[in-house]
Write a structure and sequence with these properties.
By secondary structure, the protein is mainly α. 64% of the residues lie in helices and 4% in strands. The termini are far apart. The chain binds one DNA strand through α5, α7, α9, α11 and α13. Its main location: mitochondrion.
DNA sequence: ATAGGGTTAG
């Protein structure tokens, strides 16, 4: 009769446990299951071992006491095995003490089991003491300790220990490399990833599937995507993990199209996916704002009965909100049987980017009432920026001071200070924001000066704007957007001479601007427009429509904001350049390609320009269309000529 | 006995 889990309650329990542990997927569970069954087919040879294989730890400990110094290696082995499975630190210590009494010098493998036990129980200090005091070590003892450091983010300790191990003459194996590569922060550490890579090559582990995926992931995390791809292409065999690692590498570096393309390619080549693969794919789809694709993934995940892992649900919340569909985000959030701080953060960020300050505050309140989840620095960031985007300045300032007084359990970081500048700036308290920057304990970054500059544009504060602008041009001279905003400020107060000198400065600094692009999703296809685009097949039609719109909009009172153009050309040329902005092209295309009354959803990779924002407002008013525009900062929901951002962004 | 990929923010 074939064995089944129900015949072995202790195994069924263990498997249950492993299933709930997200670090394992089906294949490793299966491996464990088969290994346990084979263990059972050759029955244990003592009463103590039978108790252990049934998971009856307390009874086995009693047996240990009865046997006294007659205990054998196998008995300790079985006991420690159970302690590791059940993560029992105290009981493990008892076995440890007993073992010391029995043997003058226990065998290496038993000492190594103790290291494993202590690391799994999060007692790294005990594990390290064990390692240091062992008279004899083997590669497993070293690796278990290195792995414990790596997995908990103690990169320096892990790398130090690796160096110590190499000095002692021990050769790393595939396990050592797979784990230590996850601790290589970049070429700035005292051991670089490249050094370890060369060691990997020398040891002939480069095409090992675990080592290889760890290696490619390390390169991806350092931003060296080409090297990562190189390692991936050299792997003799691919599996879920290596495929997911390279896809998520592209996604995390913002190469969203690349990630999607590679996913499709690997899928057609027979790649298996699991929930991690889909979570990474969803990150890419969030960036692309590809709602239809995202829904497909959701449907697929639902149908294929992939267990509802929190991580995957979190990505779905994020995907829906970044695609502009907060209702689905919330539905996903509400349906979750358990939530982590990331689930809350993703939802808060969603409301925040849509400018829904009330909802942000309500959700934050529920979060604080919920047991078992603590706000972290991202939570506060989301709440503060939510208050700013949602026009709840005073609430936001209260929360900041609450945090600064230590009432929230999160230390203020530079980004939080940035949010305060935003809050004050939006409220028109520009002088106060400027003073705040000067009293901050941290050196202001480009983002902070940029935030102050933005406030000065909206509240027409030329003096502070000039100050902030010049600070900003010093820290971040390559960003063309900064010159444009400073130019906006000068232009609004008629200081044309200064407008010219800003333009001059921009030319001198040879600014390389990230090319602006906007896109719109129609019938599951993304239509992308670049500034002054000539590549889209319906580009002529779009441009003709723009000219027609311009006439209509001007009659309604639209005046092109020429200070958004910093090229030295005449006014007619400037108007033409403005019409070539990618978001206007995408918006106009949306207007002609979708039926009347349907909302137009446009996405842009940079911050939306003042003139385009104004253009969209007139479109929404004249054509009675809702325009939803996501820029790299937030959503603008434009309805009947007014925008949810309150013209502050 | 020891191992690799993941979600929010920037």
């Amino acid at each position: 009769m074939p064995a089944s889990a129900s015949q072995f309650p202790c195994i069924a329990r263990k498997i249950n446990l492993i299933f709930r542990c997200p670090r394992h997927d089906f294949s490793s569970t299966l491996k464990l299951f088969t290994c346990k069954l084979s263990h059972l087919s050759s029955p244990p040879n003592s009463h103590l071992e039978i108790l252990c294989s049934n998971g009856q730890l307390q009874e086995a400990l009693l047996e240990m006491a009865l046997q006294g110094l007659q205990m054998k290696f196998q008995g300790y082995d079985a006991l420690l095995n159970v302690c590791v499975y059940q993560r029992r630190f105290r009981e493990g210590q008892r076995v440890h003490l007993h073992m010391i009494k029995t043997f003058y010098s226990p065998p290496v493998y038993l000492n190594t089991r103790l290291i494993v036990l202590y690391t799994k129980c999060d007692c790294l200090g005990d594990a390290r003491r064990m390692l240091d005091e062992m008279s004899e070590r083997n590669i497993v003892s070293w690796t278990a300790m290195i792995s414990a450091y790596s997995q908990r983010g103690y990169a320096t300790e892990a790398l130090n220990l690796l160096v110590e191990m190499l000095r002692s003459g021990e050769k790393p194996n595939e396990f050592t490399f797979a784990t230590v590569l996850t601790s290589c922060p970049g070429d700035f550490g005292f051991v670089s990833g490249r050094q370890i890579h060369s060691l990997v090559i020398k040891s002939n582990y480069e095409s090992h599937i675990y080592v290889g995926s760890s290696l490619l992931d390390m390169y991806a995390k350092q931003g060296k995507i080409h090297e990562a791809r190189g390692v991936f292409e050299c792997l003799p065999r691919r599996d879920v993990v290596s495929c997911t690692a390279i896809i998520s590498g592209y996604a995390q570096l913002g190469f969203d199209e690349k990630a999607l393309e590679l996913f499709r390619q690997l899928l057609s080549e027979g790649m298996h996916s699991n929930y991690v693969t889909y979570a990474s794919l969803l990150t890419a789809l969030s960036g692309l704002a590809a709602l239809d694709h995202g829904k497909q993934v959701h449907g697929h995940v639902f149908r294929s009965e992939i267990p509802s892992y929190v991580v995957l649900q979190n990505s779905l919340i994020d995907m829906y909100s970044k695609c502009g569909n907060l209702t689905y985000s919330r539905r996903t959030f509400d349906s979750m049987p358990e939530r982590t701080v990331i689930s809350w953060n993703a939802m808060l960020v969603g409301y925040s980017k849509h400018g829904m300050g009330r909802e942000v505050l309500d959700l934050f309140k529920s979060m604080r009432e919920e047991n078992g989840v603590k706000p972290d620095s991202v939570t506060i960031l989301a709440v503060l920026s939510g208050c700013s985007h949602g026009g709840m300045e005073n609430w936001g300032l209260d929360i900041f001071y609450d945090m600064a007084n230590g009432n929230i359990g999160v230390e203020p970081e530079i980004e939080h200070y940035g949010c305060v500048v935003d809050l004050l700036g939006r409220a028109g308290r520009v002088e106060e924001a400027f003073e705040f920057i000067q009293t901050m304990p941290i050196k202001p970054t480009a983002a902070i000066w940029g935030s102050l500059l933005g406030a000065c544009r909206v509240h027409a504060n030329v003096d502070i704007g000039e100050l902030a602008g010049h600070q900003l041009l010093q820290v971040e001279p390559e960003n063309a957007g900064n010159y444009v905003i400073l130019s906006n400020i000068y232009a609004s107060s008629g200081r044309w001479e200064d407008v010219r000198s800003v333009r001059q400065l921009m030319m001198e600094n040879a600014v390389k601007k990230e090319p602006g692009k906007s896109w719109i999703e129609l019938d599951q296809r993304l239509h992308t427009f670049h500034a002054s685009d000539r590549s889209h097949p319906r580009r002529e039609e779009v441009f003709a429509k723009e000219i027609e719109l311009l006439v209509k909009l001007k009659e309604a009172g639209y005046v092109p904001d020429l200070s958004c153009v910093l090229y030295d050309v005449d006014e007619e040329q400037k108007e033409k350049i403005l019409l070539g902005h990618s978001e206007k092209l995408a918006l106009t295309f949306g207007l002609i390609a979708t039926p009347e009354g349907v909302p137009i959803r446009v996405f842009k990779n940079l911050r939306i320009c003042v003139d385009c924002h104004n253009f969209a407002k007139f479109i929404s008013k004249i054509y009675g269309r809702e325009v939803s525009l996501r820029d790299n900062n937030r959503f603008h929901r434009i309805l009947g000529g007014t925008c949810s951002c309150g013209d502050y962004w």
